[in-house]
Amino acid sequence: MTCRSTRIPALAAAALVAGCATTPPAPQHPVIADLLYGALCDHGRQDAVCASPASGQPAVIEATGDSSCTYAKKLVACTWYGYSFDYVLGEDGANLDCEQVSDVKSNHGNIDTVLDTNTAVSGYTVHLNGRKGHHVQRQYLGRSPVDRTEHMKQSCSYRGEKLFEVEFLIHHHAAKPDKPSQGVSSKPTP
Q: What is the pTM of this model?
């Protein structure tokens, strides 16, 4: 239908305008909404953020090692945490470039391998599928060999534009004799 201005009766004009209504353009970058971050609840797969702090405040994580995770093909004591959000994309799928910065150096890896050792900065990619959806970024902390407090920020960008940042205040509790320490932090799992 070609939309043009002509003289027509009012009722027909309303129908024509409705037929020519424009659809809002797709966003040029991902639109992120309902960002939550903190400890993950155990619903079989740690698939939901239990509680998120007030905007701009760090999520407090008690890293007790009460769960089990696979890190570099080994079962380790760990604590699950992460973030979730809804998204709308201007294209079918997108990759976010993310960075984790901490005031504590640690090893970073995934279920298969150790990727970085003794580092405070680590990068990872978040893959978003489709044009809209909900994403849960599951992450875990291995059991620390010592009691300590860690301050960590994670941010994600799209084509150089920062979309969001989350902050964690992590209270690491030293390993108990029956749960050996690993001193690891996972790369986020896809």
A: 0.77
